[in-house]
Each structure stands twice: as C-alpha cells, then as structure tokens.
Amino acid sequence: MNNVTISDLKKIISNKKKILIISHYNPDGDAIGSSFGLANYFESIGIEAHVYNRDEVPVYLNFLVTKNFHNSVKTIPDNIDLYVLLDFNDLERSGAEMMGYLQKILNNKKSALVIDHHENNKIKLANLFIDSKASSTGILIYRLLSQLKKKINSDVATCLLTSIITDTSSFKNSNSNIESFTVSSTLLDLGADLELINKNIFRLGGINKLILRNKIHSTLRHDSDLKLAICHATSSFYSDTNTTKEDSEGIPNGLIFYDDIEIGIFIREIGKDSWKVSTRTNNFIDLAKFCNIFDGGGHKNAAGFSYNGKLENLIESIISNLKK
Ligand SMILES: [Mn+2]
Prior knowledge:
Helix content is 37%, strand content 20%. It is of the alpha/beta class. It has 2 domains: 2-201, inorganic pyrophosphatase (n-terminal core); 208-323, Diaminopimelate Epimerase, Chain A, domain 1, CATH 3.10.310.
C-alpha cells in the first residue's frame, strides 16, 4: 500500500474507457459532490462514467446530477476498467452488496483506486490517494482534475464546491484551511453556481422535521465537566413524526456551536438494542481515537460507531470512557 502522487494518478486513469465511482452509504454532500464531479469530468473527456451508491441521493442534493447513477450492482455494466472508491476508509462503508462485488474485483487485481481524506484507511489497495488534511474529498478531486488538460466545466465546479461547502459546514468547521478557500475561489471562477448550492443545501425542510428535532433536543444531557452534550432518537421519534433519518442530519454538529459544549453526540436507534453514534468536536479531543475504543472510526473532529446493548449502558460507557 502506498500513497500515490498526482502524476501516478494521471497514469492510472489514462487510456481508461469505462469507470465506476463508488462512495459511502448514507451519502453526504462530499460523497455525492466528489462522485458526480469526477463522473461529469470523465464524461466531458469522453470516458464513460458510472456512479454507485447504496442509497438514493438525499433530496437536498438533488440539484446535482450525473448520467449513470446506480443503486444496485445488477445494473452496473461489464468491462469496467477502473474502480474509484471515494470518501470512505473501510469497504464496509460501501454497503454489503457493493462490498461483495468489490471483494471479487479486488481479488482479480483489477485496477482500483482510493481517493479519501479520512484517517485510518483500512482498504487494502495498491493505489491510495489519501490526505487527511484535505477538508473534503472534493478538494482531492480538484487537485487531480486541475492537472489534466481539459478545463473543469461549470457543472463539475458546482459539484466540487458543494463538497467543500458541506464538509466544512460553510468554512465553520476546524478542517477549513487555506486550500478550502483558494480552491473554492478557483471553482467560482470556473463557473460554480454558489447561489444554487446555498439555495439547496440550507433549506431546512418541512415542519415535521422541526417537530422531530424538537423531540431529539428534549433528550439533551449536558455534562459541564466533560463539555459534553448527548441527544438521542428512538425509531418511534421518526415514525411518530413521519420523518426519516435524513431529517436528523447535522444534530451533533449543531450542538458544538453552543457555549459549554465541545463534544456533541447524537445516538440513533437502528434496531432493537442497536444504536448508531455520531460524534463531533472542534479540536477538543481526537474523536477518531475515541470511537476506535468502540470499534468505530472517522476523523479527529467527526467520527462514529455502532453499539449493541441498552441505551443507558451506552451513555454510561461513553461518559466513563471520556473521563479516562
Ligand atoms: Mn468527506
């Protein structure tokens, strides 16, 4: 395993005719923006590009489009000659169906490539292009495309700017750096539609979403010594309000903008005594390390894990491990 350079990347993609781009399930603005940006660029230079995600594109990202989008491996054509894995560090994050598909391919040693900005990459591939200092995978795609002959068009620029704006929460997160701004400015020069992006990604949604978030926030527990805030949602929260898990996106991120909260945690029921935990901070502690205790992972500032057991035990375990 080695981290490849831009010129290696150029060699890897040269002479390819049919490319498949895969991103993580529950896709966010970076997964969709970087996948569609790369696919649309390839299409603009005459390479057939296909994008796979286990899940549908979230409604707020529906303004980004690409030609060949797949939710099932059954519709993916044969003779793919390059596989590009975007914005995830563990094959499991592509979903069970894609994982099975990829394991077959990787065994056949077909050409494959990971482009990602998460820490602790667990994907065993020869070609890795990973930089955990990049504020989004969209930044890494830009680094590559800006070195190719054909100019980035305005559609591609809009996709990549969406990646940057969503993964930095509009430059509010601590992953925002000089490159996030310089690349964004260049993308605007290339015709990225900032107004379209803002109009779509900051729409808050329907009244049911507000009612759901009200319920979630009413479960708030605050530990002032740990500067910790925890909220949770059981499945009934969603069924009672006729909402989906998408409607609770951004909960842990929202918590850390309050005084006296440095760690925001949101716990969502995914099955009987089974929970998904999302954690956020701005450089207060290393959450990737923290979530590793529970066999999870992610970034320093945004990480998660799954837990089987009672909610109370989970919360106790979070607090006692944070105290350590
Ligand atoms: Mn990302």
